[in-house]
């Protein structure tokens, strides 16, 4: 697949993991996906970049000492003007968790909490556009917002990021919309108000592609991780929810002859135990 070098504003463009044990996380993900890892210098906080072949695919950062936050994967949305995007998000009801900041010559980043309580990153690219591959084995294949306030979430992302959501199902027992550029789907929004366990907030979750989901789930356990939900079949493929050795959860999504480009439509995502 050709390397990606640009993103439409509002699309997921990068993912990274905040870890309390960088060396353990590095060993886990390189072993599970065959990634290689490089570490930046002190000027970038020794940030680790994961590579799939010659393409950057994800990042890894160290939790601050004494942090009480759980280890977690974060999705970043592409923006053209991060200052304007952050102000637009604030005006639309978001909380700014991290004000826009410059990351060397790579670009500018910010972190927000959307009005439904889900954290999401913003990225304005310079030298670093984002992940170089997606929708294939060993790369991000889907990004999904599980929200406790579906209508508010759709309104917010439409207003701030210019999404045009496409309803996949609008029945009260299951509401799900996809988003992305014209003729494409970059991710989905799931109405999880009735299914998220008490105390679990709205959140984004990352799907990473593998050729064999059951085998990959077993490999997760061998490497010190855990299976949060056993592999299941859906009309869009095979999926499993897992956690790495430090507790950061993600979904495994089967990638075979055809690229995975749609979400699970079962109420599977509701079993998230983050």
UniProtKB/TrEMBL annotation:
Residues forming coiled coils: none
Every VOC domain range: 11-125, 139-255
UniProt protein name: VOC family protein
């Amino acid at each position: 697949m050709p390397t990606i070098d640009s993103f439409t504003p509002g699309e997921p463009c990068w993912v990274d993991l905040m870890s309390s044990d960088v060396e353990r996380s590095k060993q886990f993900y390189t072993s599970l996906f065959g990634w290689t890892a490089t570490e930046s210098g002190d000027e970038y906080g020794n940030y680790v970049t994961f590579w799939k072949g010659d393409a950057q695919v994800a990042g890894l950062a160290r939790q601050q000492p004494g942090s009480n936050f759980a280890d977690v994967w974060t999705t970043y949305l592409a923006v053209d003007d991060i200052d304007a995007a952050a102000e637009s998000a604030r005006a639309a009801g978001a909380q700014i968790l991290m004000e826009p900041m410059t990351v060397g010559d790579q670009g500018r980043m910010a972190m927000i909490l959307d009005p439904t309580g889900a954290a999401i990153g913003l990225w304005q690219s310079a030298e670093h556009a984002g992940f170089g591959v997606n929708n294939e084995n060993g790369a991000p294949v889907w990004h999904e917002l599980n929200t406790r306030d579906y209508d508010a979430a759709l309104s917010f992302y439409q207003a701030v990021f210019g999404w045009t959501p496409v309803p996949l199902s609008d029945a009260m027992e299951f509401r799900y919309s996809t988003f992305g550029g014209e003729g494409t789907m970059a991710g989905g929004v799931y109405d999880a108000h009735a299914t998220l366990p008490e105390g679990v907030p709205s959140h984004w979750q990352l799907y990473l592609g593998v050729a064999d989901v059951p085998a990959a789930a077993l490999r997760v356990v061998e490497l010190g991780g855990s299976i949060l939900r056993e592999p299941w079949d859906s009309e869009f493929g095979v999926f499993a929810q897992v956690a790495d050795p430090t507790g950061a959860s993600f979904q495994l999504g089967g990638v075979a002859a055809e690229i995975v480009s749609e979400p699970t439509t079962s109420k599977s995502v509701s079993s998230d135990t983050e």
